[in-house]
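Support case: S-adenosylmethionine complex. Customer-provided input:
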Amino acid sequence: MNLYDDEARADSYAAVGFEGTYHLASRDLPALLAAHVEGNSALDLGCGAGRSTRLLTRLGFTCVGVDISAAMLERARRADPEGDYRLVPDGDLSSLGERRFDLVLAMFPLDNVATVERKESFLAAARGRLAPRGRLVCVVSSPELYLHDWLSFTTLQFPGNSTARDGETVRIVMLDGPDRRPIEDTLCTDETYRALFAQAGLTLLETARPLGLPTDPYRWVSEERVAPWTIYVLGPG
Ligand SMILES: C[S@@+](CC[C@H](N)C(=O)[O-])C[C@H]1O[C@@H](n2cnc3c(N)ncnc32)[C@H](O)[C@@H]1O
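Agent response - structure generated as follows:
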C-alpha cells in the first residue's frame, strides 16, 4: 500500500510547498543543478502533487512527472493543467518508450520505497532513463530527521525512531498540512544509499546536507544544527 494513495493525504501534501523545513530541500537545488546538469529535459520521478515538477519548470526544465499514486497526480494536474503528469506502475517506466533525460529528479519517493529490492528496481529504472551525460538527483530524508523536532515536523512522540535500524519503519508528523496522521517511512542510512547507488551503476558526484542559515526567512528549530535532508547527485558509470 502506497502511503500517498490516499485522498486526505494527497490533499494535505498538495497544500504544502517549499516553506519551513522544506525550504532546505529546494534552497540549494538551483546551484546544484546548474553545476551538474547539461541540458533541460527532466523526469520528475515520484512527482507527487507536482511541487517538485513545478520547481523544475520554473528553473527552465521541460518536465515529465510520473508517480504511482493517482490521487497525488490528480492534484498535480489541477495545480498545473499544462503539465505532463503520468501514472506508472512501481519500478516500471516502460510507458515512457525510449525517452532519456538530462535530469532525473527523485525528490522524496525513496523514503517510502520500503524494501531494498524495491529501492534497487527504483534506482535501476531511474538510471535507465538517464541520457549519456545525464544526472540523477535524489533528495531523501536524513536518518536524523526522525530524531528531532523541526519547524515543519514533529517526531518526539515516536521514541521507537531512536532504536530503528536500517530498513525499519520510522514515523513523523507533518505540521504544515491539515493531515496530522503519522507518516510511516523506511529508515535508510547513508551507507546503504551509497551501496545501492554503486549496485545500480551510479557514481556519486556530490552529497549536500543543507543546514538552516540565519539569513533564511524562518526561525529554525533544529535546522541550523542538524540537516533534515540529504541530496545525492549521481551520474551513470
Ligand atoms: C513525499 S512525496 C514527494 C512528491 C514530490 N516529489 C515533492 O517533493 O513534493 C513522494 C511521492 O513518491 C511517490 N512514489 C513512491 N514510490 C514511488 C515509485 N516507486 N515510483 C514513483 N513514485 C513513487 C509517492 O506516491 C508520492 O507521491
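The radius of gyration is 17 Å.

Case will auto-close in a few days if no follow-up is received.
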